[in-house]
Amino acid sequence: MRLIAKMWALYCCKPKIQMRIHPLFQAKKKYIAISDWYQTELGQFLLDELTEKLEPVLSTSFGYYSLQIGCAAESEQLLRSCRVRHHFNLDRDTVGSNICARSAHLPIANDSVDLVILMHHLSTTEEPHALLREVSRILIPQGKLIIIDFNPLSLWGLRHFFQSWLEQIPWSGHYFSASRLTDWMQLLGFDQQKHLKVGYLPPIQQPRILRHLSWLEKGMRNWIKFSSALNVLVYDKNIVPLTPVRARWVARKILSPKVATRPTAGRGMKYNRKI
Predict the structure, then answer these.
(1) Domain residues for 173?
(2) pTM of the model
(3) Fewer CB within 10 Å, N side or C side of the chain?
(4) Rounded Cα gap, residues 108 and 103, in angstroms
């Protein structure tokens, strides 16, 4: 018993071990929102490439209303080539947002929005299925949905796997794979049109080191194409509106079922002729 008591005393007096992050991967400061992280050099690099990749998609998007959920501060640069007339933002932060509401309960009428962009919101919301159902409800038939989020099958996903417990942006939340999102959207009646891959730089915050790793970016872009930093999925709402079928009026039968097909006058008649 004395031996057990001594071992317990040594265990209680032992200093606690704290997990430390290597300075190479440690951020200079903690970010309140993902929009603040996009102001860094690494975030701006991803945003510039994302804008370039989305330009052919958004330049062919037409309509009256578009809605972006998440990253409201980046919507001006992202939608530079979009041809939808009116645009609205919904974000947790009040800066740059036009709608204050929960994303799982959107105060928008059914079939009224032509384009919806989910930018880093699906991975941070607590109700991803409810959010997707709301997006399906407000989109018009043949409307367009664009999901932008981090790729779990990449170096960014690997860092998220080891640092998600820190709850630091942009490594917090849940990274969904492209195949899983496509399965969800198919259940809601959406068809995948494009799968764009953006960014192949490693998730390192130091700009000086990033400049010396251009060879790694080119190698991953050519040989490991699935390991991009961002997954950009473009879907179409493939639901055709129902056309009401008018009831047929019952017409009264005027003629009898047996209708004469040729004239029968004179058949079998006898003529008495007097000479």
Answers:
(1) 22-237
(2) 0.74
(3) C
(4) 11
